[in-house]
Write a structure and sequence with these properties.
- The chain has 510 residues and is α/β, with parallel strands linked by helices.
- The chain is 37% helix and 21% strand.
- The chain has 17 helices and 20 strands.
- The strands form 5 sheets. It has a 7-stranded parallel sheet, sandwiched between helices. A 7-stranded antiparallel sheet has the order 15-16-17-18-19-14-20.
- Helix 1 links the parallel strand 1 and strand 2.
- Helix 3 crosses helix 4 and helix 4 packs parallel to helix 5.
- The longest helix has 28 residues.
- The protein is globular and about 70 Å long.
- The two termini are 40 Å apart.
Length: 510
């Protein structure tokens, strides 16, 4: 008989990805759910024999009901803050209602939900109101729900920690809104995970709501100073002013940090509310050593420095595959597909050597050629509320499907032949950037770099013809420098570059 499983929704998100790992280490059988199977399968824990990967969209009731079959309990770790969601509160409402119905249909023992701190009568932000509403919807069903309400989560890769890190490291003098003086009670990510796991088997915790926080209650301004001390950064000057609204603050956060506007705004609005635990009952039910803010920051800095970030805030979100991507679609799918690309033929070095260099693209390393233009485009993207280049990459030498890579996201990865990136910058259309390593014969190999673009209206066409001349220069330079960075002498003798002509469906050859 198949053992009962524990469902983890949002398994590729910041908290969910770490929780799956922890539950597996404790011996549980897990069902990891998400909207992209490839994204889930790319996680290090996905090959564990006690895990089942399943596709589930929380906005699609039938997929949720199917995913919850044979599950004993479920963790609800999803939210709808993404650039595709026009009204994240309404999407969260629908998702929670689907969860309630599907949990009742499959007779789950319990649901465990991670929510946010904040009192209803204190003028909550839209984000925190939505979190509170989701809790009420989940509790309206017959399946018992345990709600954990947390404030700021401190850990390498969390959105809150990245905002803190970039603000302190990049701004010696900070003109800040008054909310930097509000009290906040952060909690370390490892303490959050311990509470989440403990609630699974605790009968005393079932069906109750708990506030969870660390031992420190302090202001956001004090937290900035602690970070500066732990990171060994010179003293930062913090000047609170009354005229910076949460909306203006979110634009500033978006420009200075890697966190895009659609996440920065609800987080900034949430900081206007004092977020402190009103009760501490969970400490007796699930006892553990709670890390203070200084220790949590020190541990997070250590993991970031060693490139050991297990999950990151940018992991979450839908991996969007443009409908026109398959060959032949563009002619009848609502517009003409624009393409630009070049092929570099070479010999003397292996595909594996080129691949190992190629997958280091972006982040601190840059783009091999024309980094000034890449930075300029990133700055423009930030100004318009996009991800820009500040988002960087999770690991300098490793990529996996779903990873954020500056203003790209890894769509497909097949070593050593295919790297496909979907563009997430603000632009009037949809775009894909592809790299193909194709073996021609025993001696010769081709490295192809292709930009595919589906314009949206006249603005989209105008944008394409503006950037096209830059593509011609930058693509040639990138291909050449990727190869020359491996072996200048052997490549220089065999290297030749030519315009790529679209006469075959490239990904069918791989």
């Amino acid at each position: 008989m198949k053992p009962e499983q524990i469902m983890v929704t949002g398994s590729t998100g910041y908290v969910g990805g770490r929780l799956v790992n922890q539950l597996l280490a404790s011996g549980y059988h897990i069902k990891a759910a998400g909207r992209s199977i490839d994204k889930i399968k790319s996680r290090p824990w996905a090959k564990n024999s006690r895990i089942e990967v399943i596709k589930a969209d929380m906005l699609d009731y039938s997929s949720v009901e199917e995913a919850l079959k044979n599950c004993r309990a479920a963790y609800y770790l999803v939210h709808s803050m993404n650039p595709q969601s026009q009204d994240f509160a309404e999407s969260d409402r629908i998702a929670a209602q689907n969860m309630v119905k599907a949990a009742e249909k499959n007779k789950l023992e319990k649901i465990i939900y991670l929510s946010g701190l904040g009192e209803k009568d204190s003028g909550l932000s839209k984000h925190l109101k939505s979190r509170a509403e989701v809790a009420e919807i989940l509790k309206s069903g017959s399946v018992p729900v345990t709600v954990l309400r947390a404030a700021m989560i401190l850990g390498s890769g969390s959105a809150s920690f990245e905002i803190l890190r970039y603000l302190v490291e990049h701004l010696p003098v900070m003109i800040t809104p008054r909310w930097v003086q509000n009290p906040v009670q952060p909690i370390a990510i490892r303490n959050v995970l311990k509470y989440l796991e403990g609630c699974l088997e605790s009968e005393e915790a079932t069906g109750r709501t708990f506030d969870i926080g660390g031992p420190d209650i302090l202001t956001y301004g004090r937290l900035m100073k602690i970070y500066a001390e732990e990171a060994k950064i010179k003293h930062r000057f913090i000047i609170p002013v009354p005229f910076l609204s949460p909306k203006l603050s979110s634009y500033w956060i978006n420009l200075v940090t890697p966190v895009p506007a659609y996440i920065a705004r609800p987080l900034a609005e949430g900081l206007r509310n004092p977020v402190v635990c009103r009760e501490s009952d969970i400490k007796k039910i699930i006892p553990q050593e709670l890390l203070d803010c200084r220790t949590a920051i020190r541990l997070a800095l250590g993991r970031a420095k060693d490139n050991c970030i297990e999950t990151c805030w940018s992991d979450s979100g839908l991996l969007n595959v443009p409908e026109w991507l398959q060959c032949g679609d563009a002619s009848y799918a609502g517009g003409s597909l624009k393409e630009a690309g070049y092929t570099a033929s070479f010999s003397g070095i292996s595909r594996k050597e080129v691949w190992n260099q190629l997958i280091r693209i972006g982040g601190e390393k840059g783009y091999f050629y024309g980094n000034f233009f890449w930075k300029l485009r990133g700055l423009i993207d930030r100004i318009f509320g996009g991800a820009g280049l500040n988002r960087g990459r999770r690991n300098p030498a490793e990529l996996r499907p779903g990873d954020a890579l500056d203003f790209f996201r890894v769509l497909n990865l097949k070593a050593p032949g295919l790297l496909r990136l979907v563009v997430e910058m603000k632009m009037p259309g949809e775009a894909i950037l592809e790299f193909h390593l194709i073996k021609i014969d025993e001696k010769e190999t081709e490295l192809r770099m292709i930009a595919r673009y589906s314009p949206r209206g006249l603005a989209g066409l105008f944008y394409w013809y503006i950037v096209y001349p830059f593509h011609n220069v930058i693509f040639k330079g990138m291909l050449k420098n990727i190869l020359l960075s491996i072996d200048k002498h052997s490549v220089a003798e065999s290297f030749k570059i030519s315009l790529f002509k679209r006469d075959v469906c490239v990904h069918e050859q791989l």
